[in-house]
Amino acid sequence: MTALLEQALERVRTLPAELQDEYARILLRLTGDDDAVYQLSPEEEADLIEAEAEIRRGEIATDAAVNAVFSKYRR
């Protein structure tokens, strides 16, 4: 390990665990490890749970509503 990498890792060790994990994920992606699992934030997890509940309740956009939105941006 180079001195620079060791210095960087020493700094990362002083960060909160959540930030350490984020830096680790970035490093793994940069080194070609595409199998890293993305961890949802609490807010993302809550949004996903709510979206799944909306789907179960049938609260989804109709095809016409989706097409109306996309038509604004089509050229």
List keywords for this structure.
single chain; 2 domains; elongated
Q: How does this model look, in words?
A:
By secondary structure, the chain is an all-alpha fold. The chain has 2 domains: 1-38, no CATH class; 42-71, no CATH class. Helix content is 65%, strand content 0%. The chain contains 4 helices and no strands. The chain has helices at residues 3-13, 17-30, 42-56, 63-71. The longest helix has 15 residues, at 42-56. The N and C termini lie far apart (52 Å).
Summed up:
With 75 residues, the protein is mainly α. The chain is 65% helix and 0% strand.
Supply the helix-strand structural class. mainly alpha
Topology, number of strands:
0
Q: How many structural domains can be distinguished in the coordinates? A: 2
Helix content range? 55-70%
Counting DSSP H or I runs of 4 or more residues, the number of helices is: 4
Share of residues in strands: under 5%
> Per the principal axes of the C-alpha atoms, what is the gross shape?
elongated
The helix-strand sequence is HHHH
**Oligomerization state:** single chain
Low-confidence stretches: none
- Taking all Cα atoms into account, the compactness measure Rg is 21 Å
Estimate the mean pLDDT confidence. Answer: 91
Largest sheet: none
Distance between the termini: 52 Å
Draw up the topology in text.
Elements: H1 3-13, H2 17-30, H3 42-56, H4 63-71
